[in-house]
Amino acid sequence: MKQDISGQLVAALFLLLATFCAAAAEPDPLPSWQEGGTKSSIIAFVERVTQQGSADYVAATERIATFDNDGNLWAEQPMYFQLFFAIDRVRALAPQYPEWETREPFASLLKGDVTAALAGGMPAINELIMSTHAGMTTDEFAVLVHDWIESARHPETGRLFTDMVYQPMLELLAYLRANDFKTFIVSGGGIEFMRPWTEAVYGIPPEQVVGSSVVTKFDMRDGKPVLLRLPEIRFIDDKEGKPVGINSHIGRRPIFASGNSDGDLQMLQYTAAGQGPSFMLYLHHTDAEREWAYDRESHVGRLDKGLDEARTRGWTVIDMQRDWKTVFPVPRD
Amino acid sequence: MKQDISGQLVAALFLLLATFCAAAAEPDPLPSWQEGGTKSSIIAFVERVTQQGSADYVAATERIATFDNDGNLWAEQPMYFQLFFAIDRVRALAPQYPEWETREPFASLLKGDVTAALAGGMPAINELIMSTHAGMTTDEFAVLVHDWIESARHPETGRLFTDMVYQPMLELLAYLRANDFKTFIVSGGGIEFMRPWTEAVYGIPPEQVVGSSVVTKFDMRDGKPVLLRLPEIRFIDDKEGKPVGINSHIGRRPIFASGNSDGDLQMLQYTAAGQGPSFMLYLHHTDAEREWAYDRESHVGRLDKGLDEARTRGWTVIDMQRDWKTVFPVPRD
Predict the structure, then answer these.
(1) Record: contact B182-A225, CB cut-off 8 A
(2) Does domain A32-82+162-213+235-323 correspond to CATH entry 3.40.50.1000?
(3) Cβ of B216 and A248 within 8 Å?
(4) Interface pTM, i.e. ipTM
(5) H/E segment holding residue B82
(6) Cβ <8 Å between B225 and A250
(7) A213/B contact by beta carbon, under 8 A
(8) What is the pLDDT of residues B90-141, one digit of tens each?
């Protein structure tokens, strides 16, 4: 009798251990996501396309996932972070350009009035970008970006910009890669502004970054070949440009696309039009407390047509406030 | 005594087995390459950059290898294979364009006189390409290429074009990948002409193919998004264009670059100018018997300045006749 009980105890212990091991072997891949519809539908899709023998199985080589960056992998308020870089560059370069003291948008900027500087709209922004993002080699530009991203801080949160990435999206990227997806950034931001840090921050290598670009020109400097960045737009990777950029860089249609604004709508439409299963994901900024709340009326990251189309077509929409347990990761410092 | 001998026998057998296993575990990665300088220098470089702790160690993520395609991974005589595709398309499309019967370069082509058709030089070739490579969606074009590459045959050898790839280069690609290199094609050929078959033939996926391109435009057809190929050159991935294309698509400098013509020179110079170790490889077509022999005077794949620079700078030059045991793989049919 005694032996029987001890036998049962051992069996129970084994069962407990087995359960524990099973749980340990499969930890929650998306711990910062609230349980519920959004998280469940992401996991259901990934399981559907990765289960061999299933009608919706997609070969690993075809598991292409594309992510917008601004407002989707990291924040974008009160303005695109790349603009902070441009502004810091204007300040650093100002001593070399005394004429900026009286010329807009530089004059306002140097007086600290960013709003007035950007009042000129796209032409003003274009001038800021061209005067700070061109006129050097690609290698020199990469160093400028690298140094800036390591030290610059967001004016409202005081955080490093790379600490204003979304923890749930980092988990989603890792979860997709663990399921043999190849993850790409497809952003309206500058391709060479992103590449110096995307591998360290998102695990996405330079060759998987698609973005807007200036014209570059091969040249010889002291017998060494360099690529010069010219003040001329080559490609705008936004709206209709996103499927064009995807086709140019990737050459396959994504089966998973994630964005947060009307600028991502064509990428999601293009993804939805694939022949096999596909997953379209919009991030809706609904969290004024932990982040920012904005959509149809926002000047940055407007989500209007996209929100309507997502609802009509049944695409998955993340409600940041409801679906995310945490927004930002624990800061590095 | 007897036991001693049997002990020695067992030891000898173990030694034999160990030797056999070691040999079996490390088969020759480049069996179609003759032993000697070229093969040895390739292997020495790969061992040098992959050996952890060595001064020349390169992290796996930085092991970028770029290969020209025409005349480097597959043959290119008597003319670029993509031109055979264009010619076959002209024939297929001719009934829709009765005016081609009297208009060059189409008229000569339709009479079977390719030489006369191409006598118009680049403008004639450009017209042939634009009239056959544009005016359809990217998906439609991929199907045309796919169907052609599965059936068209080289006029001199009667082989499928994909059976005119170089066996030693297939081995080199696989050897590099086995050592955690990421292999890319960087070709003057059309990016969308290559992508439909490079994964099956070379093990290089679409997103690792860089090439020349036409402008594509996002459009809606019956509510479905498509990309239209327009008859307008977007980018020529040749000569100075190769480093530009590499930077645009890959965003890192290769440490290994392989080409066969002056069109690859800037890619090799760009690779050589990297900060760490680098390997520059030229394929010299010296084998009139098994393939073709051509270099400084050839209209296709001219290797003149590149050959001089390779010799001056000590880059590795493959002598096809001397260095390769076999040229083409055993045909599939």
Answers:
(1) no
(2) yes
(3) yes
(4) 0.91
(5) helix B81-93
(6) no
(7) yes
(8) 999 999 999 999 999 999 999 989 899 988 888 898 899 999 999 999 999 9
